[in-house]
Specification:
It comes from Musa acuminata subsp. malaccensis (Wild banana). By secondary structure, the chain is mainly alpha-helical. The chain has 3 helices and no strands. The protein has helices spanning 2-18, 36-80, 84-102.
Length: 103
């Protein structure tokens, strides 16, 4: 599920990057911002650079989160496969660790 929501964001960013600013809906701009005709070509280049930077940051974050999500899935599957005795042993181990940290 989380993976598909990331794809949705990537698709939105892809559309934003590849669409001329004049054709974008006003909801993508800050309130009170000037149009691209007023700001000129320099502002257009600057905004494309900012969007590219944002896409790169999002890709990096998603890459980092992918590992965490996979590890979480593996841990959940492992815990679901535990027997009652294994669960009790794990609880005892955790309680021993907590008492060690408290002292």
């Amino acid at each position: 599920m989380i993976f598909f929501s990331h794809l949705h964001y990537y698709a939105q960013i892809y559309v934003l990057v590849n669409t001329p600013l004049e054709q974008l809906d006003g909801k993508y701009f800050a309130k009170g911002s000037c149009s691209t005709q007023q700001n000129g070509a320099a502002e257009l280049m600057n905004s494309k650079k900012l969007v590219a930077l944002m896409v790169a940051k999002l890709e990096r974050i998603c890459g980092l989160l992918k590992e965490v999500i996979e590890q979480t899935k593996m841990l959940v599957e492992k815990k679901q496969a535990l027997t009652y005795e294994e669960m009790e042993a794990e609880r005892e181990e955790i309680s021993v660790l907590f008492t060690m940290y408290e002292n």
